[in-house]
């Protein structure tokens, strides 16, 4: 699949995700929003899978199986437990974002220092200096901080 078609597929999937979120705001269009979200995810997965750089197809199949293993039981949750189901879904989304970020970080580290941009270098150096974190937090909570003092009674 050509690079332009993959990028166009990602653009269409992104637009469908945005429409899905918008349509799920109203009960009248919620069903259309769910279908748009499903279509967007299928397009994104197929566009990614069709790239020649993807050589380990087993990981994609494993992710799809894991998604079904988690999604099917969650779809059977009664409507009275929707907030808990939503929280659980968001936690899986956070886990996925964390895993993707960690994998990308390690790919950058193994590329070599000549490929690291300033932003990547900061992301690599900052975790090595945790001693500054308490001072930053204290300064944010100090009485000279207008944001921190706005909520305090006089």
Description:
With 154 residues, this protein is mainly alpha-helical. The chain has helices at 3-23, 30-49, 57-75, 82-111, 118-125, 133-141, 146-150. Helix 1 (3-23) packs antiparallel against helix 2 (30-49). It is globular, with a radius of gyration of 22 Å. The model is unreliable at 145-152 (pLDDT under 50).
Jot down its keywords:
globular, 154 residues, mainly alpha
At a glance:
The chain is mainly α. Helix content is 73%, strand content 0%. The chain is built from seven helices and no strands.
Mean pLDDT: 78
CA-to-CA gap between the ends? 64 Å
Q: Approximately how much helix is present in the residues?
A: over 70%
Which percent range describes the beta-strand content?
Answer: under 5%
Question: Any chance you could write out the topology, listing elements then pairs?
Answer:
Elements: H1 3-23, H2 30-49, H3 57-75, H4 82-111, H5 118-125, H6 133-141, H7 146-150
Helix pairs in contact: 1-2
